Amino acid sequence: xxxxxxxxxxxxxxxxxxxxxxxxxxxxxxxxxxxxxxxxxxxxxxxxxxxxxxxxxxxxxxxxxxxxxxxxxxxxxxxxxxxxxxxxxxxxxxxxxxxxxxxxxxxxxxxxxxxxxxxxxxxxxxxxxxxxxxxxxxxxxxxxxxxxxxxxxxxxxxxxxxxxxxxxxxxxxxxxxxxxxxxxxxxxxxxxxxxxxxxxxxxxxxxxxxxxxxxxxxxxxxxxxxxxxxxxxxxxxxxxxxxxxxxxxxxxxxxxxxxxxxxxxxxxxxxxxxxxxxxxxxxxxxxxxxxxxxxxxxxxxxxxxxxxxxxx
Amino acid sequence: xxxxxxxxxxxxxxxxxxxxxxxxxxxxxxxxxxxxxxxxxxxxxxxxxxxxxxxxxxxxxxxxxxxxxxxxxxxxxxxxxxxxxxxxxxxxxxxxxxxxxxxxxxxxxxxxxxxxxxxxxxxxxxxxxxxxxxxxxxxxxxxxxxxxxxxxxxxxxxxxxxxxxxxxxxxxxxxxxxxxxxxxxxxxxxxxxxxxxxxxxxxxxxxxxxxxxxxxxxxxxxxxxxxxxxxxxxxxxxxxxxxxxxxxxxxxxxxxxxxxxxxxxxxxxxxxxxxxxxxxxxxxxxxxxxxxxxxxxxxxxxxxxxxxxxxxxxxxxxxxxxxxxxxxxxxxxxxxxxxxxxxxxxxxxxxxxxxxxxxxxxxxxxxxxxxxxxxxxx
Lengths: 312, 378
Prior knowledge:
The complex is a heterodimer of chains A (about 300) and B (about 375). By secondary structure, chain A is an alpha/beta fold. Chain A has two domains: about 220 residues, P-loop containing nucleotide triphosphate hydrolases (Rossmann fold, 3-Layer(aba) Sandwich); about 70 residues, Reverse transcriptase/Diguanylate cyclase domain (Alpha-Beta Plaits, 2-Layer Sandwich). Chain A is built from eleven helices and 14 strands. In chain A, the strands form three sheets. A six-stranded mixed sheet of chain A has the order 6-7-8-3-9-10, with helices on both faces. Chain A has a four-stranded antiparallel sheet with strand order 2-1-4-5, with helices on one face. In chain A, a hairpin with a 2-residue loop joins β12 and β13. Chain A is globular and about 75 Å long. Chain B is elongated, with a radius of gyration of 29 Å. Chain B folds into two domains: about 240 residues, no CATH class; about 110 residues, abc type-2 transporter like domain (abc type-2 transporter like fold, 3-Layer(aba) Sandwich), CATH 3.40.1710.10. Chain B has 15 helices and four strands. Chain B has about 375 residues and is mainly alpha-helical. At the A-B interface, α2, β6 and α3 of A face α1 and α9 of B.
């Protein structure tokens, strides 16, 4: 049975379509990533799936229950960590956990053991008596996760959980997620970080409410049309501006000191780019063809989508 | 509805309250403050009306009349005017609220057995006091005239006679007609209405504003569990407020509590449930703390103050306004508290008022539950 399934799931706000005819399914035990730029409709999708928002049309099933007709049943089997910290800042770590344990009706017998295990799991044990408002960003997210796991949900929804969290805490967070996947929890996570998307078993690329790509990270990369040319130059910023102007057919992306150019004819592009940069007295240290990263794929797929939208 | 979830919400809400001592202090201190403030300031008693006297006659007879005034507990002679201008000035400057002018021929005409007009002027800019002062002046002069008439009859007829009919007024329930005795019970009702609605007006809106509601509605918690759980701690605070108010009435204002104390707290509990739920309903509908608290204030304070019969007798209002007062729950609570406090009556007479309070409570409870949606809409 699919852990999550949607059919033409749509949500409008006035004239804006936040989520547009979304159809996909997530198998049990998957770590599924929802990826897309800000405003793509990730949070709205999360809310529709967690049954805290009603769709305008279309259907969704989570853990076998319909999100509108069987709302109450869904709530028992999911855990949700909203994008904005949703726990009580004036309650301590253990008060927050006990509150959610009460709400979910976690039996008293195994509660202490469970809370201790989750606290140890999230490295929050030393902060049990600390007010949630006084935790750091990373610890807050881990507390959110711990509270969402208190009732052992079948499906866990995480809305950009690592947004604004330091790299060490992010690594911790993902370590926990992997462990959960081993325990057969289905995880539905949205993220704007593509290195995180790369770690998912499957992912969906969302743009303006529409599903642009769906598959394993490897499959999604296959969507890439053309090849990637990587350039390292003495002045990457100026080179990127110049290349965008002179070679409008290529998509030019700037990643730190590297420039990625998407092209269907790598050799010809290599020659013309070299000529352009030499003309501007920018020294090229490396030019080579590289396998596409998810960043490249998304930049190129989003660019195609933009072109498509303009043609419509 | 699962009781364990109601308990969890109530416990959490209680922690919020305890962790915010300022709000808790407000919830307890403000009613006390309002009660003492209004209790002292809002007195309807007209006692010792300052009086200006212009005695043009200056005879033993006129002085006897004036002595009737200064000897009564209603008047206090402040100004001895020597001419009309001084009378005007005394009233203009509010040195005196009333003036008594005795004509120059007072003693002569009285000696001749004629009716002697005496002028009493009152300051009508304070209509309430003016009416009462006028009444006092009439009573004092009438008593004096009667005394004189009897004396005359006795002198002529030689035998003491009795007046055929005599009114012996007896004021029930508030023998000294002290306004605090009926103001304080009504005031408790008005203050509780406002405080109760304010207490809960923030609770739901705060969760939406802080983002904690989104987390909460992703759980199996149900609307009625949330509403009831949130009400309980505030109900406890509200009952504490009632208790403190009753104690203040008893020991501070010395208001007699003649009725059943148990009944008093029972109707307070019913009323509080309704008023607290009203505050929560406002919070549910507005989803904004600022808007909710302002709306709670406007929707409770003015109606409770003006239309509950606490300040102004409902029977004297235009029919249309009287109709509106039936929608003001404070009206029934004011009637109940006044009845229990002053008359010592119970449900045998106030049953309808108590029933309507139950109806009000049930109604807002139902509407609040209908209005609360476990959904994000924007």
